[in-house]
Design the sequence.
């Protein structure tokens, strides 16, 4: 793979313990907890960092406007370049990509990137509704699209329940995950209250407080790292209008093209075979099969069959969200970066109990808005892996 | 008492105070665009209008003043009158979260309505006069307009989208036979 740009390595990853309410921490404390862990993992200190890239979901979620300004102190960014990224729910992914571009473009050699949300200090449903009555939350917007997917693909209803159980059992292997539901069963998911038909309570993500952080560096830094690095093989971002007549909301064009662009850059011709593990943004259970198809990992109508046959389990041929995913922890702004960081951990061999054995190539994806913003990257344990 | 970080948080009550809700207010005025003003005037008259792009023929309701697909400016010459009847192409039943300002207390419907020719989609509409469990894709519906003296479009600004309840309360079943839902699977938004 010939690249004109500087190779980018992830040498440190950190995350908070995600919880419904981290009232032991202020906002600065929250981002600092994740950032300190990423620095420790990288064997670096604050003074090693040249620039900081921060992302979070819309400011009305906590009611703190332009928080990148007030958080500069906590992230030792005073006097350093600091940039805020803003792409709704996909922001953790696009923030990671912006940070990687500072390395790839040889602007900086060591970049810290952080993303967070403290949902307990606000009300996301109020924020999404703009303070008006009748707000539906993200689930209410996505629910009809899932119904469309179900109708179009002929998927049986237990597929959604199955994803909900799989991700929660994966989360039991992840000590940072918010939801710890070792006793969850298909029966419990099915019997849980209906929130947005067809989405049950247990098929929906929680509201979490949490943050994620990564330290990115160049080829020299990656090769000198004390722990194995994850190399960024390619990145892609695409967006489309959230609403226009005739929009394909089940398989948004921006998502299709984002994946196409990414696979082309990395040299992936058969994602299902060439990718060892994926962390996909699945805040509601049905989005697992929808993104498997929406990013051409599975053919049309085939995504739910991968779920049904257990292929997306940790032990399956294409594990999805071994960390427990957004269904188990949803600090909104951080959720995308958790996908990007967990993918890196997998190829670094650092994922702990939810490690997919021998993972060499990992895909991460985040989406946001009305499923209109997409961010994806592929990372590998090798800078130039053979993608057979 | 101490909080989870071990800090003393003792107050006069029994429970430590960990969070205080604070409401703030921000008032601003939005200059409503000409196409939306015309849309509001039509609503006061119990009519729905839209703009149709001459290039791609897509129908924008409410009118935008431009077609974002073709980047074509649209004006009164591109205006069309819409039907106030149509078909439910998709829907969800929402269990309301009780955030500040939420008035809904019981599960409610939000449906996508494809209006009869010349077409146009209205999303996030209430379906009235029918139990929520009986709402279905393919159901024929007609507009329920607020009585003339009660119609109010003050809340409709440039970014209100399909929130029209001050004038268009929602849609109710017409009682006509259902249309095949599969025919509208690409008309959900």
Sequence:
């Amino acid at each position: 793979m010939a690249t004109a740009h500087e190779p980018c390595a992830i040498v440190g990853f950190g995350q908070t313990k995600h919880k419904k309410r981290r009232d032991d921490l202020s906002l600065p404390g929250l981002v600092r907890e994740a950032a300190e862990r990423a620095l420790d993992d990288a064997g670096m200190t604050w003074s090693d960092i040249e620039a900081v890239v921060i992302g979070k979901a819309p400011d009305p979620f906590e009611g703190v406007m332009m928080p990148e300004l007030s958080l500069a102190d906590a992230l030792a960014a005073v006097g350093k370049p600091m940039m805020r990224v803003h792409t709704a729910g996909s922001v953790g992914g696009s923030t990671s990509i912006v940070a990687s571009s500072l390395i790839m473009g040889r602007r900086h050699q060591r970049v810290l990137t952080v993303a967070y949300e403290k949902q307990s200090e606000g009300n996301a449903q109020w924020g999404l509704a703009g303070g008006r009555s009748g707000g539906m939350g993200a689930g209410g917007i996505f629910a009809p699209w899932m119904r469309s997917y179900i109708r179009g693909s002929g998927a049986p209803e237990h597929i959604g329940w199955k994803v909900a159980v799989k991700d929660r059992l994966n989360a039991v292997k992840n000590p940072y995950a918010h939801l710890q539901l070792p006793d969850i069963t298909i029966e419990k998911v099915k019997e849980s209250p209906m929130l947005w038909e067809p989405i049950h309570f247990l098929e929906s993500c929680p509201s979490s407080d949490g943050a994620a952080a990564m330290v990115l560096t160049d080829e020299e830094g990656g090769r000198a790292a004390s722990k194995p690095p994850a190399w960024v093989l390619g990145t892609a971002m695409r967006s489309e209008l959230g609403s226009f007549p005739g929009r394909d909301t089940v398989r948004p064009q921006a998502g299709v093209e984002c994946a196409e662009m990414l696979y082309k850059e990395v040299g992936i011709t058969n994602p299902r075979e060439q990718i060892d593990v994926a962390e996909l943004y699945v805040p509601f259970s049905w989005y697992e099969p929808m993104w498997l198809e929406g990013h051409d990992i599975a053919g049309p109508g085939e995504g739910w069959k991968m779920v049904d046959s257990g292929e997306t389990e940790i032990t399956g041929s294409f594990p999805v969200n071994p960390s427990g995913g957004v269904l188990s922890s949803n600090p909104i702004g951080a959720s995308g970066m958790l996908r990007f960081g967990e993918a890196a951990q997998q190829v670094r061999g650092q994922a702990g109990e939810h490690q997919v054995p021998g993972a060499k190539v990992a895909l991460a994806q985040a989406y946001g808005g009305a499923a209109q913003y997409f961010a994806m990257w592929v990372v590998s344990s090798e800078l130039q892996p053979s993608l057979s | 008492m101490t909080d989870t970080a071990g800090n003393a948080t003792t107050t006069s009550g029994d429970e430590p105070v960990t969070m205080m809700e604070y409401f703030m207010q921000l008032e601003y005025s939005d200059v409503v665009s000409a196409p939306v003003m015309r849309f509001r005037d039509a609503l006061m008259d119990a009519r729905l209008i839209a703009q149709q792009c001459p290039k791609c023929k897509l129908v924008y309701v409410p009118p935008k003043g431009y077609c974002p697909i073709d980047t074509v400016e649209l004006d009164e010459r591109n205006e069309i009158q819409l039907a106030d009847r149509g078909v439910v192409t998709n829907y969800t039943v929402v269990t309301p979260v009780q955030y500040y300002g939420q008035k809904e207390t019981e599960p409610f419907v939000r449906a996508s309505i494809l209006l009869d020719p010349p077409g146009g989609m209205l999303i996030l509409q209430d379906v009235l006069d029918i139990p929520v469990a009986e709402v279905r894709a393919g159901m024929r519906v007609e507009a329920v307009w607020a009585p003339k003296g009660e119609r109010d479009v003050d809340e409709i600004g440039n970014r209100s989208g399909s929130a029209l309840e001050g004038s268009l309360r929602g849609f109710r079943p017409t009682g006509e036979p259902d249309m095949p839902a599969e025919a509208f699977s690409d008309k959900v938004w």
The CA atoms of residues 90 and 367 of chain A lie 4 Å apart. Chain A touches chain B through 41 residues (CB under 8 Å).
